[in-house]
Input
Amino acid sequence: MAQVLAPHGIRGELKCRIITDFPRQRFKRGNTVLLDGATHVVQSGRIQAQIVLLRLEDITDRTTAEKFRGKDILIPVDEAVRLPIGQFYWHQVIGLEVIDLTTDASLGRVRDILETGANDVYVVKSDSGPEILIPAIRDVVKDIDPSLGRILVEPLPGMLPA
Output
């Protein structure tokens, strides 16, 4: 839901890049978050565009805050907002096998997701082949099924390596 960029000030506040689509809900006082494997309680969250200045109750000085630089702030899975049918969280997509519908061949697994502004792009890598970039658009991605562990795609001409 956020990534710690740096400490902010001397009282342990964290400057974080917002990743969640629900920042006002997530950074409310009293909510719990996971940071570096431990549970923390939100004391305050000041949202400024795509940044949140986050104060957690048990992080009270800059030295402690510095230890979390680059770490991800998460929420327990059972607290995730239910998404509409056909939409998925990144953690549900990363690791899925990508299958080419035209050849029934496996292209590899989703290793990462890039945000481009217009649409996300799935970074797909197999054990032996080159990295493939798959735009997450309806013309290409035909089905995502985390329960089956797969994504079905219909590549556009020139999308796959020769």
